[in-house]
């Protein structure tokens, strides 16, 4: 009598195992709330604004963009905003580097860092009001200079380009400094000590050791600081000339939305503003490879 052949059923991996093999496990699910939050807070408003920008009050679907680039009073806001954001970002980065190198060697680093980043807690409006009281025609600085006979009439330091410039430097430096300090302190000091032992000067150590390792960090710091400065609005209104040299692109978007009640045009200006920032960021991140030589293997940890 032949023994009955029982078919053998080979079970494949379970659904959980297949998802885990592709990186979808219980830990990955923890990211899901943050992803949904980002989708609701950033992606949806951007998509809504992009669609709205192609729905002008009159004309074709590109009428808002055609109007923007046909009106010099509108498209010149791009150059005016860049003329503020780029120099401010470069100056903050240049100032942050030596300060970060100095602070990392001090004993009371936390106290000094707290003092340096204090302006970031004040807010843009409060800083602007303080500068108006200090740099205005009847401010402390002008009155002091006139009391000592150094000037005969008040210096015009606000309601122009330089008032906005000073405000952006004060509010942007703490952010730039914190990012720079994190990159500087992440480099192993043994590399500098080895170069010093071989006879390299301070400038040579910075140029051949620190600069190549810091260049990726400098690029990211520049991009984040630039985006922060490019979105200037309160300073340009309170300390600048909103109808003149400091009529930045955010003011143009505000006027289109809340003075002309043309939300479609305001969305188009906001989209242009975003694409200009994106172009600068992509250009900076793409060009950092021209200065960075080799992997950043000198970081601690």
Plain-language structure description:
With 301 residues, this protein is mostly helical. It has one domain (68-290): Orthogonal Bundle (MetI-like fold), CATH 1.10.3720. It is 66% helix and 0% strand. The protein is built from 13 helices and no strands. The protein has helices at 15-21, 32-53, 63-70, 72-103, 109-116, 124-135, 140-147, 161-185, 189-197, 202-230, 234-238, 249-258, 263-287. Helix 6 (124-135) packs across helix 8. The protein is flat and about 80 Å long. The N and C termini lie far apart (72 Å).
Features:
301 residues, mainly alpha, flat, MetI-like fold
Sheet-strand content, in percent, reads under 5%
Percentage of residues in helical conformation: 55-70%
CATH topology (level 3) name: MetI-like fold
Low-confidence stretches: 296-301
Structural class: mainly alpha
Task: Specify the CATH architecture.
Answer: Orthogonal Bundle
> What name goes with the CATH superfamily?
MetI-like
The Cα radius of gyration reads 27 Å
Number of domains: 1
Envelope shape: flat
Number of strands: 0
| The top level CATH class name | Mainly Alpha
Number of helices: 13
Element layout with pairings:
Layout: H1 15-21, H2 32-53, H3 63-70, H4 72-103, H5 109-116, H6 124-135, H7 140-147, H8 161-185, H9 189-197, H10 202-230, H11 234-238, H12 249-258, H13 263-287
Helix pairs in contact: 2-13, 4-8, 4-10, 6-8, 8-10, 9-10, 10-13, 12-13
